Every structure is written in C-alpha cells, then in structure tokens.
C-alpha cells in the first residue's frame, strides 16, 4: 500500500513538472539553446537560435512583467547579391494581457548584403550564415523598444513586409531579448553555459582573469546581459544561424559598375540600353528540363539563320523577348528577359552577316570578373563574331556546387549552357568558342600566375594543335607575359571543370576549339579603353582562324 502511494505521489509530481515545462516550453527551449557550439568547428563558430517572421500572420513573444525594454536583432534572407543593401520593414504591436494594443509601429530596415570567401577555402558565405538552407543572410541589425511608458505590457507580436517594389528579400529572421531580472540560480546556470571566448569578452574590464571572477561579479555581469525570449504557440519556424570570426574571412566585391569608358554619359543606343537593363538583377530560377530543351532548339534555329518572326511566341513562353536591331551595316538579333521576369536566364546577341560565321564569345562572370562584360560587348559590336552570351545574375547569388548554382561556367541546367550546346551542334565540326574571364595576380599560387597578364587554356590537359596554333598567334598580340596551359608550365586557371569546355571537347568534333581567355586587371582595363588592342586581338584571331578553317570566313 505504501509503495502504491509513493508511486502515485511521484506520478503526480512528474505530471506537474511536465505541465510546467510544456507551458513554458518556448521560453525553456530558447533559454537552453540560445547559444550553442557548432560541432563541426567548436573553436570558431557560434550558433544562435532565431525565428522566421511571417508576412500575413503574427509571431508573438511574451514580455516579462519587470522588463523595461526589448532588444530585437534582425537579419534578412536573400538570394540576390547585385544590390549592396536590401530593404524591408518589421511591423510590431505591443499588447496588454487583454490583447489591447498599447503601441504599434513599423521599423524600416536597410541591411547590407556582403558576402565573404572563407580563407584557405572556396566556400562563399555571409556572416552570419544559415546552418541549413540555400539563402544568404544580411549582417545583424537591431533596435530597442522602450516599455517604461506602457501600462502592463504582456506580449509583442511581429510580422514583416517588403517595401514598395523591392522583392529581393525572401524572409526575415529575428531574435528578441529583454532586460528582465532573473533568479540567482538562473544566473549561475547561464554563466555556466557561456562559452569560454564569451566569458573572456565579458570580463575584459576586470582586474582579475576570468577564472578568478567571484560569484558576485559574475551575477553583476549577467545583470547587464539581455535575456532571450522564445515565441508563444507552436506555429513558429525556428532556424539556426552561425557566426565566425571575421579574421577567417575576406569580402567579395559584388556590386560593380559595368559601364563603358564614358560611364558618366547616357548611351542612346537601343542595343546598349538592352545590355545594361539585362544586368538589373532578379532572383536566379533554374529552368526546367523542358524549357532547356526548347531554348536549345530555338538557339539552333537562330544559328542556322531561320527568320525570327516564327520564334517570337516560343521565346515569349520562356519569359524571353527577341528583338532585331539595325546598327550601321549590321543587324543584331537580341534575346533578353522580359522586364518583369528577371530570373537570371542570360542576355544573347547574334550578328547577321558577321565577318566570321562560326566564332562566338561568352562572358559567364560579367559581374565577378569585372569589365569582361563590356569587353565582350565592344568586341561583339565589331561585327566579326557570330554571337555572344552574358550572364545576368552574379555567379555567387546562390551557393556554389548546388543544382541551383547561378555560376554559368559550372552549371549545366541553364539557358547559357543551352546556347553553348546549340552552337556546338549547329556549326558542324569547325567552330571556335572564346570565353572571357578575369583573374587577380595576387591570388595566384605560382610565380607565373602572379606575373601573368593573360592565361590561355582549352579546359583540358591535352590541348589540340588547333588551340595551340590559335593561342600562339594571340600570345604575340596581347600584352605580355602570356602563358598557355599547360605548355608554359603554368598550373592554374586551366578551366578543367568548365561546362562549356566539356560541351565543346566531348562533342566528338575534333575540329572545334574552346578558348578560355583569362586576363588580369590591367589587361582588362586596356581592352576596355584601347581600341587598337581590341583590333589586334580580332585581327590575330581572324587571321589565324581563317588559315585553320577557310570555311569560317563569311561567304
């Protein structure tokens, strides 16, 4: 009988504890997991619990009765990286226990979109970054909400909204904290949970080192800390974000001015305006397999000289416009995205009556490899090239090495790659694809790379004799030193994983050539400003290719 009574008492006590924990689950969960270590990098990475706001529904947080103010930290999720900042607003209302609104306000946020490359790694990330997920997030922004003039605030609820026509924010994350007091027992537990690095920072103003700080001093430190608050209910979405020391990162320049020499003058050229407008952003959306097949067929029809009138509806179904522009004696066919459907599917120009029928240009890293876009534009206007293609979103807009990567030189499911495949299949063996890139001498691992002005490669360790002949001619025309991979013993910038190179090289058409044309910063500037250097490039290219392939000259 006694055993039964004890069992019943223990069961009742256990049920009460469980009910208390469940009632306070959100706060309890937030308190336990507010700051934890990342198991993959325990010495450098800190992980924080954050909550994703909704646009149409409120997310609510309780307010302690003794709280004097609230601290809200916020980050915006985004795909796009062309713009240096993103804009959004957080709407909040503070309620009393009867759900009467005591205060309502909008906070308008303007957060920076800075990305970094991790040192000794190819990984691109934001800081903070999401532990899981495809988006990048902005740096932390915060604001404080005073509560002293409000009568018995009991809760705060929030949602987010975009501003005007800004659409580059895909989500908003927040962390809410209060300056409410806490028990001595909780202070002791929180001190125990703080990481050693954080303890050093909190005690940096004390005379004694951290291990000699007494209990009273620890409690005083905790009293000045913000206490995290978890949301109420069960419909909230929690995410983990991480921060690492900035000493381990180096920023990547994302927003570049892609204008020509007279950048301060507005061009009246319809073609140039289309080119500039193509780079005005959008979120990269990988096309479907069916759309890629359709785009490849349409590109093939243009390469074969079919009239564009029969293709307008087909291009329109892909979210693209086709335009014909006369410029001097040349006629250019332009494939560009519809203004309200900017999803990173590229910008394409074909020249009817070009001096050579089978040579095309590609600029897959128009923003990252600065000035390659405008170099390609000026070369295309010369009328010597049959076609050209440009990327229209930054190569690092989406994370690397994923099916949704926006790097046009390394992703196969894109219209950009469909353009390459169509060219390779339409030109019947004899064709040359030249892809323009840029590199930094400082980042090269070898002495040759640090000294090079131009590096030429075919995307393979065994280049064809036609490539070597063409590269030899260009080597004499371009500013020195010019190195050819792998003939000149340079071991970097080889384009061995370039998907366009693969499309050309594995097509079993031995006469086709892929030219990966890498230029350092100085050479790119010269190619933009120096018309005679561009002419030397074209003349050397055309002279040698006509000797290699007489059929390449325009008939």
Summarize the structure.
With 555 residues, this protein is of the alpha+beta class.
Features of the shown structure:
single chain; 555 residues; alpha+beta; nine-stranded antiparallel beta sheet; nine-stranded mixed beta sheet; 29% helix; 26% strand; elongated; disordered C terminus
List the helices and strands and how they pair.
Layout: H1 2-23, H2 25-33, E1 35-37, E2 46-52, E3 59-62, E4 69-78, E5 85-95, E6 101-112, E7 115-118, E8 124-125, E9 129-130, E10 136-137, E11 141-146, E12 155-162, E13 171-178, H3 184-193, H4 196-202, H5 215-223, E14 227-229, E15 237-243, E16 249-252, H6 270-277, H7 289-303, H8 312-317, E17 320-327, E18 330-337, E19 347-352, E20 359-363, H9 372-381, E21 387-390, H10 415-426, E22 432-438, H11 447-451, E23 454-457, H12 465-477, E24 482-484, H13 499-505, E25 513-519, H14 521-529, H15 531-548
Parallel strand pairs: 20-21, 20-22, 22-25, 23-24
Antiparallel strand pairs: 1-2, 2-13, 2-15, 3-12, 4-10, 4-11, 4-13, 5-6, 5-12, 7-8, 7-16, 9-15, 13-14, 17-18, 18-19, 19-21, 23-25
Helix pairs in contact: 3-5, 7-10, 10-13, 12-15
User: Could you describe the largest sheet, including whether it forms a barrel?
Assistant: 9 strands, antiparallel
Q: How many helical stretches?
A: 15
Q: Compute the CA-based radius of gyration.
A: 30 Å
Number of strands: 25
Strand % is 25-35%
Cα end-to-end separation: 108 Å
Classify the secondary structure makeup into a structural class: alpha+beta
The percent range for helix content is 25-40%
